[in-house]
């Protein structure tokens, strides 16, 4: 081989290696944390999780949420053995945390799975069998990310129009279905439209539900709808959103709607916690 070519090739490789190192260093944005000598020489794949997290959020035009506080040792909402099923719209807490719940399951946007993977914030999915049955696997991917699977009936009826036995079929039937598909029977139940009566409570209790979960805010396309007059998030609020796509969101995607929701949460100084840690 020509000597010149050999030298050129060696220089090119060296340049590539140096560029690679520079990019690595650029991605790791915490030089001050490195002043102590590490016990072990960091491997070339060494990663800074905080920088990675910031980059993942930036992909969606967001800043990372602060980590939520450690879950309470004793859950503030607990069904007494044999007692009525508690009905909740928020969780009693002084922490600036809210809970995200997403209902039904009509929209199955793969982009949303990527968004939730990038952000790593928890949500609880209240699923209706008639909405999810065309693609159980989609919600399986989200469940595998650690999101809660909860019950939202088999066919999404207004439960107030049904007798006790029909209500039981809707709730117990979906407990069974979700257990079959995702491994465990849900502990939380949300009645469609938030409509329930004492028969719903009795039915839910007999189906093994620990709490009926309503909400305080409802996410629209861009705006958050508040139940309280001050139009603000309060500590422990449960937020309702839906698996909805462009057809229902006037062209907006599920991911854009979610990013809008997260901005509302962030701009009010809240972070997102896991509902199942509190109920
Ligand atoms: Zn619904």
State mean pLDDT (0 to 100 scale).
88
Q: In percent, how helical is the residue content?
A: 25-40%
Number of DSSP-assigned strands: 10
What overall geometry do the principal axes of the alpha carbons give? globular
The small-molecule ligands in this entry are: zinc ion
Query: What kind of oligomer do you see?
Result: single chain
Write the layout of secondary structure elements.
Layout: H1 3-27, H2 49-58, E1 87-88, E2 97-104, H3 110-119, E3 124-127, H4 129-132, H5 136-144, E4 148-151, H6 164-182, E5 188-189, H7 198-206, E6 211-213, E7 217-219, E8 224-226, E9 237-242, H8 254-267, E10 271-272
Parallel strand pairs: 1-6, 2-3, 2-9, 2-10, 3-4, 5-6, 7-9
Antiparallel strand pairs: 7-8
The structure holds zinc ion (ZN).
Zinc ion binds at residues 103-104, 152, 156, 192.
Describe it for me?
The protein is of the alpha/beta class and 279 residues long. The protein folds into two domains: 1-28 and 50-58; 72-277, Glycoside hydrolase/deacetylase (TIM Barrel, Alpha-Beta Barrel), CATH 3.20.20.370. 36% of the residues lie in helices and 13% in strands. The protein has eight helices and ten strands. It has helices spanning 3-27, 49-58, 110-119, 129-132, 136-144, 164-182, 198-206, 254-267, and strands at 87-88, 97-104, 124-127, 148-151, 188-189, 211-213, 217-219, 224-226, 237-242, 271-272. Strands 2, 3, 4, 7, 8, 9 and 10 form a seven-stranded mixed β-sheet that branches. A three-stranded parallel β-sheet has the order 1-6-5, with helices on one face. Strand 5, helix 7 (198-206) and strand 6 (211-213) form a beta-alpha-beta unit. Helix 6 (164-182) runs parallel beside helix 7. The longest helix has 25 residues, at 3-27. The protein is globular. The relative contact order is 0.17. The model is unreliable at 5-35 (pLDDT under 50). Zinc ion binds next to strand 2.
